[in-house]
Amino acid sequence: MTETAGLDVDSDWKRFMRKHWRTVATFAVAAILAVGSAVYVFLWFVGDAQSTGLVPRTLGLWTMANLVNFILDAIFWELLLVGIPVVVAVVGGWLLWKRLSDEEMREYRLFRKRSRTSRGGGGVSLFFFIAFCVKVYLDGNWNVPIASWTLDYVVGSMVLILEWTLIILGIPAAIAVIWWTRHVMKKP
Is residue 35 a contact partner of residue 83, using CB atoms and an 8 Å limit? Predict the structure, then answer.
């Protein structure tokens, strides 16, 4: 039974590809161009950032301010030069998809019932990076070269950030657990 269902899905995709091969090929070429453009824009930005003095050429002289400015400027240029055309292409693909008739969509059955499981994102890493930036700024090391930091400073900062996080999240969690257990215990 499983093999038959797999063959049906494969044949649905094959029929779809045969009928709409030009559109699929166009979007495949567009995806390849988008990835190539993203790499090219990043390489252009790195060279430009060094030549304009946005960041020092030597990594040992980078400060936290250089790092944050570099990341934010790179995101800006990637979104401006690559992200906007990709969004336009995605909207175009969505409009083409919506032009398919309901009969054709039902005939292909390309998208079956999806699983509700998902993997977690990288929010914790972003949170710790932002917290580390705040700690460096508050310590007055924002414009100090990163190469001059000691391992004790970096590890101590990370431990302190972890402690702050546990206190900020742990106290409300403890209150919630105590409240919930008292609420459950009162029930007959």
Answer: no
| Shared-domain flag, residues 98 and 126 | no
Q: Extract the tokens encoding 11.
A: 């044949």
Task: Say if CB 164 and CB 131 are below 8 A apart.
Answer: yes
Which residues touch 67 (CB under 8 Å, ≥6 apart)? 146
Helix or strand (DSSP H, E) at 134: helix 123-139
pTM of the entire predicted model: 0.68
Distances from the Cα of 36 to the Cα of 23, 32, 33, 39, 42, angstroms: 20, 6, 5, 5, 10
* 103-157 confidence digits (pLDDT tens): 777 776 666 666 666 666 678 888 999 999 999 999 999 999 999 999 899 999 9
Q: Which of the 8 DSSP states describes residue 140?
A: T
Claim to verify: residue 39 and residue 83 sit in the same structural domain: yes
Asked if 96 and 156 sit in the same domain, the reply is: no
